[in-house]
Amino acid sequence: MSDRIQAITMPKWGMTMTEGKLAGWLAGEGADIAAGQEIMEVETEKITNVVESQGQGRLRRIVVSEGATAPVGALLAVLATEDVSDSDVEAFIASYADRAGSAAADADDAPKARIVQAGAHRFKVLSLGSGGVPAVLIHGFGGDGGTWLFNQDTLAQNRAVHVIDLPAHGDSEPTVASGKVTDIADAVLELFAALDIEKAHLIGHSLGGAVALAIAETSPQRVQSLSLIAPAGIGAEISANYIDGFLAAERRKPMKDVLSLLFADPQGMNAEMVENVLRFKRLDGVPEALAAIAGHLMADGKQIIDLRAILDGKIPALIVWGEADQIIPASQSDGLPAGVDVARLAGAGHMPMMEEAAQVNRLITAHLGKAEG
Amino acid sequence: MAQKSFRQALNEALHHEMRRDPNVIVLGEDVAGGSGASGQKDAWGGAFGVTKGLLGAFGPSRVRDTPITESAFVGAAAGAAMTGLRPVAEIMFVDFLGVCFDQIFNQAAKFRYMFGGKAVTPLVIRATYGAGTRSASQHSQALYPIFTHVPGLKVVIPSSPYDAKGLLIQAIRDNDPVIFLENKVLYDTVGEVPDGAYTVPFGEAHIVREGGDATIVALGRMVHFAREAAEILAAEGIDCTVLDPRTTSPLDEDTLLEMAEETGRVVIVDEANPRCGMAADISSIIAEKAFGALKAPIMKVTAPHTPVPYAPNLEAAYIPDAKRIADAVRKAVAFKRS
Amino acid sequence: MTGLQLSREELLKAYRLMRMIRVFEDRVSAEMASGDIPGNTHLYAGQEASAVGICLHLSESDRIASTHRGHGHCIAKGCDVDGMMAEIFGKDTGICRGKGGSMHIADLSKGMLGANGIVGGAPPIACGAALTSQILGRNDVSVAFTGDGGINQGTTAESMNLAQVWKLPVIFAVEDNGFGEATASSFVVAGEITKRAEALGMAFAKVDGVDFFAVHEAAGEAVERARRGEGPTLLHIETPRYYGHFSGDPDNYRTAEEKAAMRRDRDCLPRFRRRVTEAKLLGLDELDKVDAEVQAAIDQAVASARSAPQPALSSLTTDVYVRY
Fold first, then answer.
1. A365 and A324, same structural domain?
2. What is the reported pLDDT for B33?
């Protein structure tokens, strides 16, 4: 495709997404668009999020209007430089092969998550991409691989990227009875063996950040780099309201209130997202497993695991934090040693990889490149 | 996640709970597949195949074919529940509860209250309900309003395989008598169902779909028609919330009122007859407690005040459908105060 | 007669229970007339030998399910008399916190699964209790009390069939007091009650319900049969009913002569006294002492019921569900 004329298409967020609704255009026809500029808002059954433009140019034509639903891959709008004629834009639209969307065609060869037996553990793993030093993405407390909905595709452009569900999370069985972060880290190392991973970039969010640090503590030779997003384990403060509220919430309303603490702007949450968290929490064994993890993570409202010393600058480390994080304050990224890169993002809460997905993807991509170079 | 049928989801729930708790028993007509005959064992696995495999897994003491005497075995299930078992009694058709209603509404439902809070009656009565199978007036009714009316009973009406499994496990673990109604047209519908055991709490409505223009409240099979109507309406630019209360007793009034207030227009779909039905009940609650938020009269889409007919064209006209639901929503949206 | 081989303690216990039932019912009748008992009652006086003759074989883990005429069964199965009286007065200290009244007295901890306002209510429940015992491998039996009215109910017929095909450890105690409400059983019961059991292949016995020892012996065989896993038994127990159907029933469908003869000739208490004293098993003084103690206990029960508080209004909506 010529750089002079580019398609803006319906993104695919996660395996189950087949279509999305164009909730709103954030720029009108004729506007000049910079790369990375927020251009539209897309709503799926699970989530609503803004989409940033990959390329730059003038927004010449909006093909799918606000409120309409389009399949994944469908042409939504056309970006082109000024010198492209209107008739060329029309021709581009007319010829756009994938105008109807590729979701149906892709359904069969779409990557599928698998269950990987690793010692006593059974992990759900979704792998994308190939080559390079692989990256392993580790979600946070009470989360699952869906955390990385907006990241895995992008990060997998030039390497294998494994999104895992931690034990007792998502579709992984509760095989770590103790709930200790170190035991979870050992389980993930067993998964490394099962996946033939010698060394990996560890990308961890919140509790997943602490798990990544615990792996780096015992097995630094297995860690190419650390990318930690609002990690647990490097400071004392944590929102007991969130952790206790999450453990206690059994119904939609209280769960919605608790989950809204995760985001700087909770408007993107919808009923489906809350329902999915509740479905996870209703599984036999999950509440007990979560309580065990929480019991090792904090006491009297303070974190009780301290892995801050691991961030000594020897392993390349990137820390990303949302300024508006209400779960673990961004100030815990202050005062880290030189050699640890820190990025604090305005406009994001505890979930910057969702709320500021494009920016986080750029930061991590650059960090991984640097750590390999 | 695995795709499973509504029937399989229920079957898994029974397997999970019978494995988990030796006090869980299953009894009813042909639930062990048809005992005492010369042919294959567990041939039927219940009239609708829901209990298939339980006999082999748990044996004839805990999985019992009964005589066709609903009073005796439902009453015995109530007595067994009061004395330490967790019986799951299967009644082929909810219509047959007519011959054992005393056991349910005079006995099981009231033990706890009458006895000053000392009795616990963890009884589940499963039954099919609903029209659409050319089964006519005595095998097709949607009698859940009758049970909803009785204090002491809980009433569950799952609409999806996921809910069917989680609600049945909750029903079996619940310490109160539960009437669990399965729409027989839904048995072969398929959806995502986790392999493990899980519960869906009672009194928690499911927001099936979110939209700002109107709220369609629907139960059981009607949820599917409500979704269908919502899709039709979405193409016209009318965005509907579809709300499935999942249980009529307890009823999630909070979510009903929240959605009524958010959208200002409410259409209630009920496969039951209209008089003293769920549509009437829910509409009275909303009218009383969310009147100020209403932009249009509450619309009810129900079966007519008739028994269920046999002839296919009559039966089709009896059951609410997506077209009637969509029409009601359009009417609500078009309503102007004069 | 084998019943006479009972120990002195057991004989005294049987007499005390029978006397307790009689005095309880006579007193309830008197208190009903005073207007302080809010609801209706159906009195068991005259039938005492049946309840006591059967329940003397039962332990607390055995269960009984009863009828609207249930006070006697409750007392015989060990329910607290103070709590029963308070219940009938509708008080907070009642055995059901004042929520059940005379027709729903129950104490599950004593194996008493409830009096029952529905004629034919007990048999399915007793079958259920027997099913619990059978499935859990316990040795407990259950007793369904019903009557010449209840024997005609479909629930009883269905339950007898179920009990027989499943060999449930249950006894159907059919107390035939001659009347279903105001209608004579001879008018509404077809054939012989025991034949209904016979038709199902069920063991049965017909006994004189005025004779404690006869009831006790027949019940003993039935209970042992059930405990041996040999299934149910029907006991057809013929008794008088001293009062009308309910307290305050003018009972004018029976002649005064018939009622007088019934009380004179068919009273289980003097018959018991005569038998045990003639056999020199108990002395009259011992029996009289029991009478005095029972009278004092009932006086006490009434006094404490009268002075007990009403249930709190907040309890109107509690205990509908375990959790809602």
1. yes
2. 83
A332 shares its domain with A199? yes
Domain match, A340 and A194 both: yes
**Nearest-angstrom CA–CA distance, A303 and A233:** 7
Structure tokens at C299: 């006086």
Q: Are residues A49 and A139 in the same domain?
A: no
Mean per-residue pLDDT of chain A: 90
Q: Where are the domains of chain B?
A: 3-192, 206-334
The structural domains of chain C, with segments of one domain joined by +, span 2-309
Determine which helix (DSSP H) or strand (DSSP E) holds C78, and give its type and residue range. none
CATH of the domain at A89: 2.40.50.100
Report yes or no on chains A and B touching (3+ CB pairs under 8 A).
yes
Among B69, B87, B152, beta carbon nearest to C321 = B152
**Do A121 and A58 share a structural domain?**
no
Beta-carbon pairs below 8 A across chains A and B: 33
What ipTM goes with this model?
A: 0.94
The per-residue pLDDT for C277 is 96
Q: Tell me the pLDDT tens digit for each residue of A77-109.
A: 999 988 888 888 888 888 776 555 554 445 555
With an 8 Å Cβ cutoff, are C324 and B106 in contact? no
Q: The CATH number of B3-192 is which of 3.30.70.120, 3.40.50.970, 3.30.70.100, 3.90.1150.10?
A: 3.40.50.970
Instruction: Tell me the per-residue pLDDT of C16-32, one tens digit each, with 9 for 90 and over.
Output: 999 999 999 999 999 99
Residue range C47-106, pLDDT digits in tens:
999 999 999 999 999 999 999 999 999 999 999 999 999 999 999 999 999 999 999 999
Domain C2-309, CATH homologous superfamily name and number: Thiamin diphosphate (ThDP)-binding fold, Pyr/PP domains (3.40.50.970)
Condensed to tens digits (0 to 9), the pLDDT of residues A171-194 reads 888 888 899 999 999 999 999 999
At A37, the amino acid letter reads Q
B206-334: what fold? Rossmann fold (3.40.50)
Neighbours of chain B (3+ CB pairs under 8 A): A, C
